[in-house]
Specification:
The structure is a homodimer of 304-residue chains.
Chain A: H1 5-22, H2 28-44, H3 52-66, H4 74-97, H5 101-112, H6 125-131, E1 137-140, H7 142-155, E2 158-162, H8 168-182, E3 187-192, H9 203-208, H10 211-214, E4 216-219, H11 233-240, E5 244-249, H12 250-257, E6 273-278, H13 282-288, E7 295-299
Parallel strand pairs in A: 1-7, 2-3, 2-5, 3-4, 5-6
Antiparallel strand pairs in A: 6-7
Chain lengths: 304, 304
């Protein structure tokens, strides 16, 4: 989907927030100069073709360059992973003891999407985990997901998971473990970003939290979403492989893949995509007709 | 004060909010095209000299032009006046029965500043009025204000009040009445905007709610703040008159007059200014070291 009017103010707010997280004493002049560069970038871009995460890539690169640090969010990313790891054992127990461990693992993975400092919301992971009920999903295509997974296991196809943020990746690991336990022969491939961008997970994170030990981890692209133009060949192979389907985590991946009304800037594969995310902004409220904070589990071709 | 980094994202958010209030079905293309014009305006302006309300004037004019309506907020302004008028009698009783009616009227006038759709907050006037305590003022120079008013009454000077929003103006009327009752010989002059801009009060509102009957009302400038370059001669006469002091309502007036760190784009008068407002955004939190929603009653030359 292309940039919507809601995204413009949000992008400038995100930029300021990023500066405040990484360098709280940053000067007015440096921020204003970066804000002006973002305005020039937006004016020079075709706003009718560009997705918000593509602007996000430019924006977060600009923040990094302005303060002259290669991966400015490394410290926060480690903190988020550690925060999530501290909840891993308790969450695993909840999942194991649930009536339907797979559904519970899906819920934990969606709630894990809370951990995202680009969005206009506060982190409230503990409460979210404790108070979760299936009604928190305002769109829930779990039954279709489960059926498709059953079919896929028989066909020896591949489930491609598009990862999103650090911290969240720990709960994705629990989801992967849960799927593997139920479908031991299913091939699962997990995609991380191919370069540091915001607090998104990279290969370093997948190795750090032990995900790379239990599943094949590949690199997608250096964008906080999916941009086929800058994606690796390995990613494109799995992305376009028709024997399987995709589980896409988070808002950035959704924003770059969901494209109902306008010509796409890349060809979508001929297979289903399941979007699993927490609605974090006004735009998601409008698109999903839900409230901020709601969980979404939507199959691309199904209407809610 | 000049535009701060916090203002940039807020200005784009304000613009979108204005479109949604006035024309909820406005198209993406129209909004995006206005957003781009705002970017160009900011890039062409000297951001080191421009105050946010000056950009606000451009922004709200742009909204009006985009949807081709001269005073797009007329309907909302009438609603805000009527909303406030519905609380007028009850508020007047509270003020009359208070231990210090002047302080109570000041509080009501500050709480009236809640009514402002440019700001990032929700209107919660009723609760604010019912739950008010003096502790809601995080800066409170009322004692100095009172002393200065006593002195002014003896000197036959002029109190110039800089009005702000519609709705709010009803509680300003109550404040004016209260001051007149205590200081019957004091000259009070109330300034409204000289042209429609956002939901700010104009002469039409002052007449509609009966303020113009009890006090001299003059027109300041066509800006949601004070811009001496476009101000009327009559306003400048009262603004620079040294025999008196100023009570400035709201954030827009504050933002254009408060200027501690950088060269001012206009000469301030040689008299005190009392700022009475509700802190409505992150920037005010930073400047006043307060929380959003706090009331501020600050004399310009005093530190909190």
């Amino acid at each position: 989907m292309i940039l919507e009017p809601e995204c413009i103010g949000c992008l400038f707010t995100q930029m300021l927030k990023a500066f405040k997280i990484v360098k709280p004493d940053v000067s007015r002049d440096l921020v204003i100069s970066a804000q002006k560069k973002l305005m020039k970038f937006l004016l020079d871009s075709n706003i009718n073709e560009i997705a918000a995460p593509i602007v996000g890539k430019f924006l977060y690169r600009l923040v990094a360059e302005t303060i002259n640090v290669e991966d400015p969010y490394r410290k926060q990313k480690k903190e988020y992973n550690n925060l999530a790891l501290a909840y891993y054992d308790d969450t695993k127990k909840i999942v194991k003891n649930a009536d339907d461990p797979l559904f519970e693992a899906i819920a934990a993975s969606a709630i894990g999407n809370t951990i995202d400092f680009a969005a206009q919301h506060e982190i409230d992971l503990i409460n979210d985990l404790k108070n979760f009920t299936p009604q928190n999903f305002s769109i829930n295509h779990y039954d279709d997901f489960r059926k498709e997974l059953n079919k896929l296991a028989k066909l020896e196809g591949t489930l491609l998971i598009l990862g999103d943020n650090t911290g969240e990746i720990v709960f994705d690991k629990l989801l992967v473990e849960t799927i593997k336990e139920i479908y031991p022969n299913l091939e699962i491939v997990y995609a991380v970003r191919s370069a540091p961008v915001i607090n998104d997970s990279t290969m370093e994170d997948a190795e750090e939290i032990g995900l790379a030990k239990i599943v094949k981890v590949i690199e997608s692209c250096p964008v906080p979403g999916i941009d086929l133009k800058s994606a690796t060949e390995e990613f494109k192979k799995y992305f376009y492989d028709e024997n399987g389907f995709i589980l896409s985590k988070g808002q950035g991946n959704f924003e770059t893949l969901h494209n109902p009304d306008q010509p796409s800037n890349h060809e979508l594969p001929d297979k289903n995509i399941y979007y699993l995310l927490k609605a974090k902004c006004n735009l998601m409220e409008r698109i999903f007709n839900c409230a901020k904070g709601d969980l979404i589990f939507k199959q691309s071709s199904l209407t809610p």
